[in-house]
Design goal:
Layout: H1 4-15, H2 29-41, E1 47-50, H3 53-57, H4 59-67, E2 73-78, H5 92-96, E3 103-106, H6 110-127, E4 131-136, H7 152-159, H8 183-215, E5 222-225, E6 232-236, H9 240-253, E7 258-263, E8 265-267, H10 271-278, E9 283-288, H11 298-307, E10 316-322, H12 331-343, E11 350-353
Parallel strand pairs: 1-2, 2-4, 3-4, 6-7, 6-9, 9-10, 10-11
Antiparallel strand pairs: 3-8, 5-7
Helix pairs in contact: 2-4, 6-8, 9-12, 10-11
Length: 354
């Protein structure tokens, strides 16, 4: 929970003969991702889904997947972590995995969740890196909305066939996956992995443009909503962006210069592009739906780190934490954030929207 309907629906498709894919049933999420490792290394197009404690249980294997450069797609319905037990949505689980070497793409709504899953599969296989396609638990995963769905044949042709460079089942060219690597070469492996994931920013942009030509729906590393002349801006990821847009529209109607920057691609983080988008905004509120215990929240840290090298950077950046454990955030909450920015109520570097 709350990814359960994804696998249930896929199992139904399989039982009704609507997919040729194989489903491997295992006893835990750790085993699920371990099975994905074997399947992907053997040359199969591989995907799974999880959330919360399941993603946390996968933690050991997350690093193995990215280190082996396996293009596995994982759909995550982002959810709070225990304890105390909570099954509702926030970003604690995916932010805990942000440094595991996986590409992470956030979705605002059901349409984006569908689109980003298709983009994620192609991006994973193009870069030989695993991808998380992330939606907010319940707010998005259990919403009922009209979608624009592409034909299966159109998607199949666009994503293309999966032809791995190496496969455990290629007996004519036997290879070893995951051998012991000593200090004289481990460092170089990790540098190469870091280089590749950073290059994925450009690769994501190329694939997003291809998808726009296919579907007519524009995709980018982030969305700038009424940011051209913004004096105050909110930065966030996920389903709360829709609420923020309503607040921006209301404030714009009253003459306020409010804007929104919605981060779609969180890993790799598009630092230069974000810095250019925010460099001239005097007051910025970064809204995180998770915490980093003992320091600043994840998205806030990324934004400040992106802006800091910019010589002209003079923005005041304030951290807000919201929505933990599924706590709702309302349009009035967003409006209050803009009001505090406008009035300069920035005495606390971290604030909580409760």
């Amino acid at each position: 929970t709350p990814q359960t309907p994804i696998i249930e629906a896929f199992a139904k498709m399989k039982s009704e003969g609507n997919t040729a894919a194989e489903i491997i049933q295992v006893e835990s999420e750790h085993s699920a991702l371990s099975a994905c490792v074997g399947a992907s290394a053997s040359g199969a197009r591989t995907a799974t889904a999880t959330s919360s404690q399941g993603l946390a249980l996968m933690n050991e294997i997350l690093y193995i997947v990215s280190g082996l450069r396996l293009p596995i797609l994982m759909v995550v319905s982002a959810r709070a972590l225990s304890a105390p037990i909570n099954i509702h949505g926030d970003h604690s689980d995916v932010m805990g995995a942000r440094d595991s070497g996986w590409i992470q793409i956030f979705s605002e709504n059901s349409q984006e969740a569908y689109d980003n899953t298709l983009i994620g599969m192609k991006l994973a296989e193009k870069t030989s890196l695993p991808v998380m396609s992330i939606m907010d638990g319940f707010n998005t995963s259990h919403s009922v909305e009209n979608l624009e769905i592409l034909r299966d044949e159109t998607v199949r042709k666009w994503v293309g066939d999966f032809t791995p460079e190496n496969s455990l089942l290629n007996h004519k060219n036997p290879v070893t996956f995951g051998p012991l690597v000593l200090p004289n070469s481990y460092f170089e492996f990790k540098i190469d992995q870091e280089k590749t994931i950073n290059e994925a920013v450009n690769e994501y942009g190329k694939i997003a443009k291809e998808f726009e030509q296919l579907s007519g729906r524009k995709k980018d590393c982030f969305e700038q909503y009424r940011m051209a002349d913004a004096r105050e801006a909110i930065v966030l990821s996920g389903s709360a962006a829709g609420t923020a847009k309503e607040a921006v529209d209301k404030l714009r109607a009253s003459g306020k210069k409010a804007g929104l920057l919605k981060i779609n691609l969180f890993r790799p983080f598009p630092r230069r592009e974000v810095a250019r988008a925010l460099a001239k905004v005097p007051k910025i509120a970064v809204l995180d739906r998770s915490q980093s215990m003992g320091t600043f929240p994840p998205l806030y840290t990324e934004i400040v780190n992106s802006l800091f090298p910019v010589a002209s950077y003079k923005s005041r950046v304030i951290s807000y934490v919201y929505g933990l454990g599924g706590r709702d955030i309302f349009q009035t909450d967003m409006e209050k954030v803009f009001e505090e920015l406008e009035k300069g109520k920035t005495e606390n570097r971290i604030k909580y929207i409760k």
